[in-house]
Amino acid sequence: MSWLVDTLVTTGALIALVLVLRRPVARHFGPGMAYALWLLPLLRMLLPTLTVTVPAAPVAEPVFIAGEVVTTTTAAAPSFDPWLALTVLWLGGAMLFLALRLGGYFLLRHRALRGAQLIERRGAVRVIESDAIAVPAAFGVIDQIVALPRGFAEASDPVAYELALAHELEHHAGRDIAVNFAMQPLLALHWFNPLAWAGWRALRRDQEAACDARVLAGRDSAARAAYARLIADFARGPDLALASPMACAVLTEKSIVYRLRSLTMTEPSTTRRLAGRLLIAAGVLALPLTASITYAAQDAPAPPAAPEAPGAPLKMEKKIVIVEKDSGSKDDGKLKTRVVTKDGKTVVFKTDKDLSDDEIDKKVDEAMAGMPDMPDAPGGPGGPGEHRIVIRRMGPEGMAKHMTFDTETIEGKNCKGGEPTEVDESSDADGQRHRIKIKICAREFAKTTAADAIRKARDEVANDKGIPADIRAKVLKQLDEELERNAKQG
After folding, report:
1. What is the DSSP pairing of strand 117-122 with strand 318-324?
2. What is the pLDDT of residues 282-328, one digit of tens each?
3. Bridge partners of 440?
4. 347-365 burial code (b ≥16 CB/10 A, e <16)
5. In sequence order, which residues have a C-beta less than 8 Å from that of residue 228 and are 6 or more positions away?
6. What residues form the membrane-spanning segments (predicted)?
7. Which of 172, 185, 105, 167 is closest to 145 using CA atoms?
8. C-beta of residue 441 within 8 angstroms of C-beta of residue 414
9. Helix (H/G/I), strand (E/B), else coil: 427
10. For residue 427, how many other CB atoms are within 10 A of its CB?
11. 3-state secondary structure of 400
């Protein structure tokens, strides 16, 4: 609806502009340029709406007023909308106008062709004589016809006949009937506007004057005089609406004078014609500046997802398990266990001997002194203090084997397995999260093999009830896979 209103206003303004400019343009650049000016309102009617995308307005946060209750009352819609009634009247009148105009044209064409006699053919144009036609007229956009009054060919001298025929043929060559049809939707849009009807009459005068100029181009003064007499003879002819007659009722006496005066104008020079074409081209290029514009809101970006709630802090634990036994028994369940906190580390000492506290402290000191350096993991997720399990096994021969489970790579010699493999992340009953990665390091002495160290370490992990059951199961799975890899490597 807004497009129709914008088009009505803008084309009305352009019609007024052309009415002001047409005479000066005809005087300086010729009648053809004045006729071409009518392209501006016609093309503006066909100009589509331009859509401009604008960023979506931010969504306002709701405002709550404490202690107040705000009630919004919506007024009931009126039972009668005057704007709707005017719109219906406007568009209904436009449809009726088009129906009458097109119906009248096709009725006249039907009457002209009924009982008509074919006189000759000029290219694709049929020249006929008809009792229904009082003045020479051109019909048809596709099936092109020049209709002459009955007996016109015999009654007219050859010069008048050729000039009249040339005029109507020039209407077909200049596509003037097609222009008349194209202007009807614009005129229908303005059916109630006197300015538009004045524009239609001016268009027809400019159309005839431009056609006259094309017919007389290069002809002598005698032909011009004969042509002027011919126009005057048919000046009182009927209004054939969409057809292009030699003269029609819309042409008043003042308009006939304008048209005859145009015949006396000097033909514009090549430079002036070029300047006139540039003027029309500039007007056409400026038309988009008058286009109707609609604003489409750009889709608002989706709000960023809310950050996940931080999980429970990772359980920080450094645990060192030292196993020392003289017997060759693999049953670690019978070992005596002593838990010692030393230098901020939890040390679990397991032995099959009866040792005093001082002896145990000495063993712990010796064991820790012989352990490889294991720096803390870096900060951030998986940072310092994540679940780390270090197992150091002491055999009867005094040989030490180390198994390290950690969240970070332990840089040490004799380590196997490359980067640590993440086992899993889980939470215990207290909501504490455990995440563990495993890396296997081993010191080999004498005849003890890496496989022996892994198997013994596996036994220690299996019997250590201090490790959560789910993590213990997954660590054992990793150790089993390491044993399998060792077996395949021979």
Report:
1. unpaired
2. 989 988 888 877 666 666 566 566 555 455 454 545 567 777 766 65
3. 416
4. bbbbbeeeeeeeebbebbe
5. 260, 263
6. 83-108, 278-297
7. 172
8. yes
9. strand
10. 14
11. strand
Give residue 221's identity as a one-letter amino acid code: S
Distance of CA 145 to the CA centre of its chain: 49
The answer to whether 120 and 127 have CB atoms below 8 angstroms apart is yes
Strand order of the sheet with strand 400-405? 336-342, 345-351, 318-324, 388-394, 400-405, 433-441, 415-427
Residue 435 belongs to what H/E stretch?
strand 433-441
CB 263 within 8 A of CB 271: no
Classify the C-alpha dihedral 330-336-339-342 as positive or negative.
negative
For the chain, how many helices (H) and strands (E)?
14, 14
Output Rg (C-alpha) for the chain, integer angstroms.
Answer: 52
Angle between helices 270-286 and 2-29 (to 10 degrees): 170
* Cβ–Cβ < 8 Å for 192, 90: yes
Please name which of 283, 300, 167 lies closest in space to residue 226, comparing C-alpha atoms: 167
Alpha carbon distance 120, 126 (integer Å): 6
Contacts of 1 (CB under 8 A, 6+ apart): 87
Q: What is the DSSP letter of 334?
A: G
Output the six-digit token pair for 274.
Answer: 């070029």
Identity at 475, one-letter amino acid code:
V
Cα angle, residue 3 at apex, residues 194 and 76 outer, rounded to 5°: 100
pLDDT tens per residue across span 223-264: 888 888 887 777 655 555 555 554 444 445 556 666 666 766
The pTM of this model reads 0.54
Token pair of 91 as six digits: 């568009």
Reduced to 3 states (helix: H, G, I; strand: E, B; else coil), residue 475 is: helix
